[in-house]
Amino acid sequence: MTNKNGFTLIETMVGLTLIAFVAVAILGAFSQVQLNTKYVGDKNLAMVLAESTMEDMMKFPGSQLAAGTTIDYAFKTGNSFYIQTADPDLPNQFRRTLDITAAGTLMNVLVTVEYGKIGTDTYLGRVSLNSRRGG
Questions:
Q1: Residue 39 belongs to some domain of the structure
Q2: Predicted confidence (pLDDT) per residue in 74-95, tens digit
């Protein structure tokens, strides 16, 4: 028997390869968690935008609502949040559409917020709220 004083080159390479595979798997999981967290945050913000618009419309009886469609855009810059009527054409912006239509004696109020803009006019997600107002 011989006395070993350490690891052979092959043992060291196999060990480093295993550590590299584990590190890549862990980093991939962290990356996926970060993407999911951003998606959920954007969805929550879209829901807040839709709910706030719907609450504004619920202050008025249906007879005071004017039929029509309005579109505005929301986007984040640093810690600030902006809403404007012109399309800023930014990645990950939000597009909020308020559509009020007559439905007999009632007014149909539909608020749609699209989020996660990619490309020219494509959004990854959508939140919609619908209500009818009378009176």
A1: yes
A2: 998 888 889 999 999 888 899 9
